[in-house]
Amino acid sequence: MTLSLVALTRPDTDMFTLRLRELMSRRAIVRGAAVTEQVPLDGQPAGALAAIATADWVCVTSPSAARLICSATSPIPDGVRVGAVGEATARVLRDHGLRVDLVAGGSGRDLVAAFPPPTRPGRRVVLPASRRASSTVPDGLTQLGWSVDRVDLYDTRPLPRIPEVFAAADVVAATAGSAVRALAEAGLWHREGPRLVTIGRPSWRVARDLGIPSVAHAPTPTPEGFAAALAPFCPLV
């Protein structure tokens, strides 16, 4: 029996990829490659930074948003509290010397569930995000009583060419709904295609809406969660 081939939608040298490769070493060969790119929108991240400067909180929902915010010399002033969705996002912020006051689970719903109510009316949260991000976080925080300033920071676009490893894979491990869309637009599932495992329910819903059968989604948005979801489809060797 040979090892299965898992294609992960993260760069091959990404810490997430390296950890998943370690966890799956007796079950699969894990190869990573990006299928999308993040393109800053006009005036960003300067516009987001100006909004953050007068906010009470900034909530960062993805590593991509965190990297763009941290590309500035002084991204977040002292006194502005920082919330992050997922450990991967928090890690980017911490690696740039920022304190993270709240780390929620791996979805916008988790952030809303963990977020405190405002201490008085008029408290502001700035939400720098992808132009394609859902309204889950701003809607949820508004219902809690916060004044939410969403700033569209970047757009996520498919790469012009999808790496060949995805067509060759036994299982595709998708780390974002945008990655599922990019692979679908490239025709990966025009025929039977590889099995699809998604990082969580949001990306699973994207696959469902596109008519792509996702065999599983990770119970947590971590390498360990992905390894657990992949294990039934990658036998031990």
Automatic annotation (TrEMBL):
E.C. number: 4.2.1.75
InterPro entries linked: 4pyrrol_syn_uPrphyn_synt_sf (IPR036108), 4pyrrol_synth_uPrphyn_synth (IPR003754), UROS/Hem4 (IPR039793)
Record field: catalytic activity: hydroxymethylbilane = uroporphyrinogen III + H2O
PANTHER family: UROPORPHYRINOGEN-III SYNTHASE, CHLOROPLASTIC
A Pfam short name: HEM4
Protein name (Swiss-Prot/TrEMBL): Uroporphyrinogen-III synthase
Job description of the protein: Catalyzes cyclization of the linear tetrapyrrole, hydroxymethylbilane, to the macrocyclic uroporphyrinogen III.
Molecular function GO labels: uroporphyrinogen-III synthase activity
One BP term from GO: protoporphyrinogen IX biosynthetic process
